[in-house]
Design goal:
There is one protein chain. It is built from twelve helices and ten strands. It is of the alpha/beta class and 328 residues long. Strands 3-4-5-6-7-8-9-10 form an eight-stranded parallel barrel, surrounded by six helices. Strands 1-2 form a two-stranded antiparallel ribbon. A hairpin with a 6-residue loop joins strand 1 and strand 2. Helix 4 crosses helix 5, helix 5 runs parallel beside helix 7 and helix 9 runs antiparallel to helix 12. The longest helix has 17 residues.
Length: 328
Amino acid sequence: MYRANDRRYDTMKYNRCGYSGLKLPEVSLGLWHNFGDTAVYDNMKKLCFTAFDNGITHFDLANNYGPQPGSAEKNFGRILKENFLPYRDEMIISTKAGYDMWPGPYGDWGSKKYLTASLDQSLMRMGLAYVDIFYHHRMDPETPLEETMEALNQAVRSGKALYVGLSNYDGETMKKAAAILKDLKCPFIINQNSYNIFNRTIEKNGLKDACTEEKKGIISFSPLAQGMLTDRYLKGIPSDSRIVTDGRFLNADQLSDSRLASIRGLDRIASERGESLAQMALKWVLKDNVVTSVLVGASKPEQILDNLKVIKSAPFTEEELKKIDEFS
């Protein structure tokens, strides 16, 4: 039977999530990859144990994480049941709904019908009475925003979620949603968006500034650009890399000669700082205290331990930030 490390809270840094009572670890574990039906169960356990033993209390999922959709929640639910139930009150577990999950008109996007059914299914797969954070996963161009926000509010009022969040929203739409949720007195506290040295969309679409203005947290997914901001591809594409074995979210076309040159340039900056490229890339996302937490994925426990070194990273100089921008 798993027993957690008694010193698991000694080194982790916890940041307040927007204007709320909730704190998140600076590094969170995302189950987007490596927790589906194609993954090895014993390795999944090792990843979760390594995370929790080092103060990572937040585990992030979605209804469609797999492959197959739903399998990441199912596998995590098994790990919870077999190992983590004594620690449930020390954990933040989040899930999302917004992408295609089942046939017909009620298994996608942002209707109240879909979000309500999806959350029930997620809770069943994980064996939970509630999740700590329930997100709408993407903006819906057709469903009224009021309806989607009411569905999130209902999730909280029914006791099936403690807080709500939005994922892949832009700044303007997030502010409209925040106003609706404020009127409903619904605890909307966090936004989940892709953000890294190579992807600065939230700076361009107003989301980052809007979160500061509205006092909402941000959690960054893909802070390492699907592994491009690591030492994984410094010498080309390894035969066992995600590009070769999966290819759903990163493919060889994205690793052009110019992108590889940028990666190597960034690696030199990291080396001058005395840290790995991954460590520097995570620190960059967290540099101005606007982002609450970075979501890291891992295929090996050692990768989690390496990413945790960001907690001790030194602040950037203005010169370092200028050099990073040159290679971005």
